[in-house]
Amino acid sequence: QVQLVESGGGLVQAGGSLRLSCAASGPTFSSRPMGWFRQAPGKEREFVAGITWNGGSTGYADSVKGRFTISRDNAKNTVYLQMNSLKPEDTAIYYCAARPPNSGTYSYQDRAYAYWGQGTQVTVSS
């Protein structure tokens, strides 16, 4: 069983920055690809960023490429999402998710992830 707890969300003006953290429990974190997803009101959940088990490869949605950076610290069982140049359209609940151990790389599909956090609200004002 894996528990994921996100933090770092909040209210920020357009152009500002936030850093989300996702703390994971359990000994298998370092072998799991991880992802960040988001869901805005009235919209489907969408992929934001993903990272391989060792941080060697990352991927981003086109809408955040160049503004967001995903990273991880396996010694701290934590994955991060640095969000810069925030826009009002980035407003959503942000979720981190974990794939099964040794499952290869991250996925753009939410159904590929086995565990989810409770989410953290990010609101960007114009």
Structure description:
- By secondary structure, the protein is mainly beta.
- Helix content is 0%, strand content 45%.
- It has no helices and eleven strands.
- It has strands spanning 4-7, 10-13, 18-24, 34-39, 46-51, 58-60, 68-73, 78-83, 92-98, 115-116, 120-125.
- Strands 2, 4, 5, 6, 9, 10 and 11 form a seven-stranded mixed beta sheet that branches. It has a four-stranded antiparallel beta sheet with strand order 1-3-8-7, with no helix packed on it.
- Strand 4 and strand 5 form a beta hairpin.
- The protein is globular.
- The relative contact order is 0.32.
- The mean pLDDT is 96.
Offer a few descriptive terms.
seven-stranded mixed β-sheet, 11 strands, 126 residues, mainly beta
Please give the share of residues in helix: under 10%
Annotation, overall tally of beta strands: 11
Question: Order of SSEs, N→C?
Answer: EEEEEEEEEEE
- Average pLDDT for all residues: 96
- The global form is globular
Spans with pLDDT under 50 lasting ≥5 residues?
none
Gyration radius over CA: 13 Å
The chain-level structural class is: mainly beta
Number of helices: 0
Which band does the percent of strand residues land in? over 45%
Biggest pleated-sheet summary: 7 strands, mixed
